[in-house]
């Protein structure tokens, strides 16, 4: 069997970088890109040196390489943080390696790309890496919102239900401490993506907002305007409408409000949420 050491180094390094990045994403931890690359390719170099000298990488050496990558990429300052990363890395490695390996073994999906250049027909076809990375990215992208909401930062999210005109919209909201918007009468403003607002708005007005046109005069009374300013953006006017009912839920806490102002955000939010919710709406004393 011929083994091309440069290909092994590249394949192993890329997979290690993906696994380390995913472990950080699961725990909502970030690291510099250069540390991530070093964390992936330094253990890969170590693995290649073992192959050159004919040393088998058993469980102990594999664990050493895994710990080496974690320390380089994230440098955890406590044992608890290290243990969390180790478990997350194990999950990520299973998704990228074990799960996909089983999937390809049962489906033989790599046959769609032909035989191609392989370094080991029985162990490491390059097609498997390509398909594995592609499917892994799709799985991670599809689950990114879930990871963000159910990972370490899950306490920063809530569920909201907005009711207006006989229509109901349910979505995930981010508890934004920077959202201090209040109407003239002192009510906090929930900022909701336009796409989620559309079912709650009059049809003609919703169409005008989607097309970037002015609101029709006959439905002007349904809306109001208020000034706003946000970090990193220029100030402007925020379009509001009044929801008949608003329910904010997090765990066992559920707060219900009547006649609440909803701000319309013309773009999309990142991080798996569709609304910016003032944390005061979850406080027991209400507003």
Q: In summary, what is this structure?
A:
The chain has eight helices and seven strands, in the order H-H-H-H-H-H-E-E-E-H-H-E-E-E-E. The chain has 287 residues and is of the alpha+beta class.
Describe this structure in words.
The protein is an alpha+beta fold and 287 residues long. It is 43% helix and 20% strand. It has a 6-stranded mixed beta barrel. α1 crosses α2, α2 packs antiparallel against α3 and α4 crosses α5. The longest helix has 29 residues. It is elongated, with a radius of gyration of 25 Å. The relative contact order is 0.11.
Rough shape?
elongated
Q: Helical percent range?
A: 40-55%
State which percent range the strand residues make up: 15-25%
Give the tally of β-strands.
7
Instruction: Return Rg in Å.
Output: 25 Å
Helices and strands, in order, run as HHHHHHEEEHHEEEE
Low-confidence stretches: 113-124
Largest sheet: 6 strands, mixed, barrel
What is the overall number of helices? Answer: 8
- Order of strands, main sheet, comes to 1-2-7-3-6-5
Q: Give the termini distance in whole angstroms.
A: 72 Å
Structural class of the helices, strands and pairings? alpha+beta
Q: What value does the average pLDDT take? A: 77
């Amino acid at each position: 069997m011929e083994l091309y050491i440069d290909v092994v180094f590249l394949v192993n390094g890329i997979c290690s970088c993906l696994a380390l990045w995913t472990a950080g994403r699961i725990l909502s931890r970030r690291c510099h890109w250069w540390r991530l690359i070093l964390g992936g390719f330094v253990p890969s170099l170590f693995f290649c040196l073992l192959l050159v000298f004919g040393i088998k990488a058993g469980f102990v050496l594999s664990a050493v390489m895994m710990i080496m990558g974690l320390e380089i990429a994230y440098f955890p300052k406590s044992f608890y943080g290290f243990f969390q990363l180790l478990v997350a890395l194990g999950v990520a490695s299973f998704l990228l390696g074990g799960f996909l390996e089983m999937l390809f073994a049962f489906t033989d999906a790599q046959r769609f790309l032909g035989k191609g250049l392989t370094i080991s027909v029985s162990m490491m076809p390059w097609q498997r890496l390509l398909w594995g990375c592609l499917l892994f990215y799709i799985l991670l992208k599809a689950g990114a919102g879930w990871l963000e909401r159910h990972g370490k930062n899950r306490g920063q999210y809530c569920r909201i239900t907005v009711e207006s005109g006989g229509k109901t919209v349910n979505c995930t909201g981010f508890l934004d401490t920077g959202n201090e918007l209040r109407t003239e009468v002192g009510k906090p403003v929930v900022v909701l993506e336009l796409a989620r607002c559309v079912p709650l708005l009059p049809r003609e007005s919703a169409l005008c907002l989607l097309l970037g046109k002015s609101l029709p005069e006959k439905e002007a009374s349904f809306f109001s305007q208020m000034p706003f300013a946000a970090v990193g953006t220029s100030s402007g006017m925020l379009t509001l409408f009044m929801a008949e009912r608003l329910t904010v839920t997090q765990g066992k806490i559920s707060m219900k409000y009547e006649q609440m102002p909803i701000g319309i955000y013309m773009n999309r939010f990142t991080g798996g949420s569709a609304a910016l919710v003032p944390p005061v709406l979850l406080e027991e004393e209400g507003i």
